[in-house]
Design a protein that fits this description.
The chain is of the alpha/beta class. The chain contains 14 helices and nine strands. The longest helix is centred in the middle third of the chain and has 29 residues, at 167-195.
């Protein structure tokens, strides 16, 4: 079975940088590329990997590449460069959140040069990226998935093959719908609790221990009621993801009310310069319902 010992990483954003660090800890990371080269240089200075200035150079040093970039076209642009520079039997693991159609197109373009592909979007926010505890939803061939285990296990704890290429992204779309609903419900509930004059720390404790308990309630509730929204998952990125969901639903002739409402709220946050905050900043809008 092919093993991968020289991994390249592309996309050193809020998620990608700590993911690259965890791959280094696993002894896999050889080189890194980021559109803003200073980020790759900072990583190289921290851990001693190679900081490359272009994707073609990165491909020369690697037998596998993990990517974590922002948008569908970014993934395809990266894949096009990897397709002509990686050797046959190399592997591309894409941890970005894009559409199922983009994942399938990426796989097809790489397959022309006998390069394997897995779509492996992740969930768990920056905390999960730092701790190596991400949930990873994968799409691709079973044998390729098995060979990729050392890479994926360095990044996450719950790693599941959901089906063929595209199934990982479809599962991530499910995740993003659920995240939107939870964020809406918790932020609204806590704004209501505040308006009722309840002790908010006790609300979080008791409600979070019952049927309404969630990771979001316990981890974001205390900061929300303190008027703080430390970054875990950025509003602007979730908006991008929900627009992907919106297009996928539209292709089936459906509008999802929860997604449409959340996009409307995110548009307001973006227009009022809160797009770089955590999605828990939905709480800002909920408090205003009560004149606060």
């Amino acid at each position: 079975m092919t093993t991968y010992s020289k991994l390249g990483f592309i996309g050193l954003g809020a998620m990608g940088y700590p993911m690259a660090l965890n791959l280094h800890k696993a002894g896999l990371l050889a080189a890194a590329y980021n559109r803003t080269h200073s980020k790759a240089e900072a990583l190289a200075k921290e851990i001693g990997c190679l900081a490359v200035k272009d994707i073609a150079e990165l491909a020369k040093h690697c037998d596998a590449v993990a990517t974590c970039v922002s948008a569908d076209q970014d993934v395809l642009d990266v894949v096009d460069q990897l397709a002509t520079n990686l050797k046959p039997d190399a592997l591309v693991v894409d941890c970005s959140t894009v559409s199922t159609a983009t994942a399938r197109t990426a796989a097809q373009r790489l397959a022309k040069n006998k390069i394997d592909f897995l779509d492996c979007p992740v969930s768990g926010g920056t905390e999960g990226a730092k701790q190596g505890t991400l949930a990873i939803m994968c799409g691709g061939d079973e044998k390729v998935f098995a060979r990729a285990q050392p890479i994926l296990s360095a990044l996450g704890q719950r790693i599941v093959l959901m089906g063929p290429v595209g199934a990982g992204q479809a599962t991530k779309a499910v995740n993003q719908i659920a995240v939107a609903g939870i964020a809406q419900a918790v932020s609204e509930a806590l704004a209501f609790a505040e308006a009722e004059g309840l002790p908010l720390d006790k609300v979080i404790e008791v409600v979070g221990s019952g049927a309404a308990g969630s990771w979001f309630m316990s981890h974001r509730g205390p900061s929300m009621v303190a008027g703080r929204y430390p970054l875990g998952f950025k509003v602007a990125l979730h908006e991008k993801d929900l627009k992907i969901v919106q297009r996928m639903a539209a292709a089936r002739g459906v509008q999802l009310p929860l997604v449409e409402m959340t996009l409307l709220h995110y548009r307001h946050l973006l227009e009022t310069s809160h797009g770089e905050e955590d999605i828990s900043s939905l709480h800002r809008l909920k408090r205003r319902l009560f004149g606060r």
